[in-house]
Amino acid sequence: MTIHGQNLASQLSNPSLLRTKGYINGEWVDASDDAKFPVINPATGAQLAEVPNMPCGQVTAAIEAAHAAFPSWSALTAYQRQSYLLKLHAAMESHHEDLALILTAENGKPLAEAKGEIAYGAGFLSWFAAEALRTYGHTVPAAIPNQRNTIIRQPVGVCGLITPWNFPNAMITRKLAPALAAGCTVVVKAPAETPLSALVICALAEGVGIPKGVINVVVVDKGPREAACGMELCVNPLVSKISFTGSTAVGRLLMQQSASTLKKLSFELGGNAAFMVFDDADLDLAVEGTIASKFRASGQTCVCANRIFVQSNVYDEFAHRLATRVKAMKVGNPMDEGVNIGPLVNDRAVDKVERHVTDAVGKGATVVCGGSRVSGHGSFFEPTVLTNVSPKSALTSEETFGPLAALFKFDTEEDVIEEANNTDVGLGGYFYTQDVSRVYRVAEKMQVGMVGVNTGVISQPCIPFGGVKQSGFGREGGKSGIDEYMIEKLITVGNI
């Protein structure tokens, strides 16, 4: 396991955190048929580790382990579950340097960003540790004499958590924390690109004494076994809920597969965020917001600015200032100090960005800076700014998921709102203005689940994260995040 010419384990303060086996019922296990697949460092193309490629039978075993652990875990008091979550939070914070190194090695985001993700991911544990104590029920006056109505909230049961590679720590804790707080047990399907970050969470959970079977992680490679794993989680009647973060296309498939068992579902799916800069905006703030939204994680976030609309009067000046900032960004190995742009997750991701640039240029766009893949080892693409982008370009209807800022020109508020909403998805959106009336007017008209006004960063453990239209349903984080893992039960007592 090497990164930057060194053994990854040797760079960790606690090498035992680096695990390369699945975690089922408190045991570290290989695939039952010894199948394995490599974990690749996207910055170098080197192999970091080999992990098990588990067949469907082990997914079933993980579900059964979670089912067996559910009665005792759900019977704990909320205060006891809170204590476990706070211990896991403390463990994550105390090992944040090691967790960030593992994350950067397999994901490719700059080390400073990885450290930020670990803090963000740990925040879900502390937030939902508190929310565990606030799963209140209520009473309802009865319509029938001599009866009393009480509504209690209980955990839904075993939860299948299917998480993405772009935030390999935080997208797990954002689902895991409310599930455990509610009293559920879980089976996590680790992303094939970044399984090590999922497994290190299990190592920490084991260390703080979370009981066997409460957390299970299965590891499968892309292809038939991944499809079989998803299918088993959806059709197995012991699983009561699926939480998925990923593409809209896969979300549709999982929803179809879950229909036979009518599971509770929450999906955070694709986005195509509009980022609007009005002519009364503070342009320097708008540029910094664009950098934060568009180029974080090399543009590989579901809420990053995919379409940047700039009002005509300030279009040229904004493009100039943005290009100046982007040209100063440093591309390189994410372990190196000062690097702003690391590799994309793999060469297929680079191919997509290249295709979007070529398509846009073919339809009249101008490359102001960047525009090319970086030669040599690793999956790198230059941070890029395009101007005069046609609304007929492929990137208007597809998430680029890369470091490509595409600028469109608009004239009126009405026009840009129409363009911003002209998409089948609606996850996040942004705009910059100093007009207070416009703040509320535009925010209320945007067809998205989350709006950032004069900021390019919206994600926090304390807010509800989710979208509308084909960006999915349900919310993660915030006070409503735990609701996704609970049911309401009526208890009516008569003849009082």
From TrEMBL:
Q: What class of enzyme is it?
A: oxidoreductase
One Pfam family this sequence matches: Aldedh
Q: Write out the entry's keywords from A to Z.
A: Oxidoreductase
**Entry's InterPro entries?**
Ald_DH/histidinol_DH, Ald_DH_C, Ald_DH_CS_CYS, Ald_DH_CS_GLU, Ald_DH_N, Aldehyde_DH_dom, Aldehyde_DH_Superfamily, Succ_semiAld_DH
Task: State the Gene Ontology BP annotations.
Answer: gamma-aminobutyric acid catabolic process
Give the PANTHER family listed for this entry. Answer: SUCCINATE-SEMIALDEHYDE DEHYDROGENASE, MITOCHONDRIAL
Q: What is this protein called?
A: Succinate-semialdehyde dehydrogenase
